[in-house]
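User: What would this chain look like folded?
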Amino acid sequence: MSDAPILYEVKGSIAQITLNRPDNRNSMDEETMPAFCDAVDEASKNHDLRCLIITGSGNSFCSGADFKSGIFEARDRLSHQILMDAYAPFLAVGDLEMPAIAAMNGHAIGGGFGLALICDIRIADRHSKYGANFARLGLHSGMAVSYLLPLIVGLPLANELLFTGRLITGEEAAGMGLANYVLEGGQTLEKAWEVAEEIASCAPVAVRMIKRSIRRGIGWDPRNSAEIDTLYQSRTFEMEDAKEGIRALLENRKPIFKGR
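Assistant: Here's the prediction, encoded as structure tokens.
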């Protein structure tokens, strides 16, 4: 397999984007984000495509931002703008006219969970972990998760998952309607292609118009929500609790939060 951080391939009328940093749990860094953005842009411009599959290599789908890479340390922009730039490649998936399927071959955490949520269909690995663990890091949630999760699973469940930062298994994700299918990890991509081929066999203009109607009906606007998220999230990044939460994550220990 190529060493490129993002792999893009097209087979017939279906495209596949693979996050390809398995040794770093397919986390996003300064090299990965623009490459992912380029792949989504290429897919959006290919009018012969009828479906897009997003997956990860190795044992993870995506673990979100790579905190060790320094992607949030730029000095030439305001902190919320840095965060919005980081989320922009994932948000671009939400702008696609064609359906997007998340083949969640492994764990999807934080921003990586947001990437899965912004896709139209999700296929989960039975034993992998999924969730928005922001509160456990001392952070406000990001990537429009506070908007997307209630839309998908309903307000009470979304409240519980966001307030606790709890991670759930693929089995639990399917049970609450977050995942369309739950399978063994090695079968998620195969199932994604099966569903994609079924979509691709339908009239492409009709499918795109149906997707547009669905989104108009629910007032689809994750980008606006993400902008609000970044304002709150950037503020929590400045707090001692966030510094402690991220430090504890990197040191593999339980954080001690003090509310400041």
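Strands lie at 6-11, 14-19, 51-56, 60-62, 100-104, 107-109, 121-125, 129-131, 168-169, 181-183. If you want, I can go into more detail on any region.
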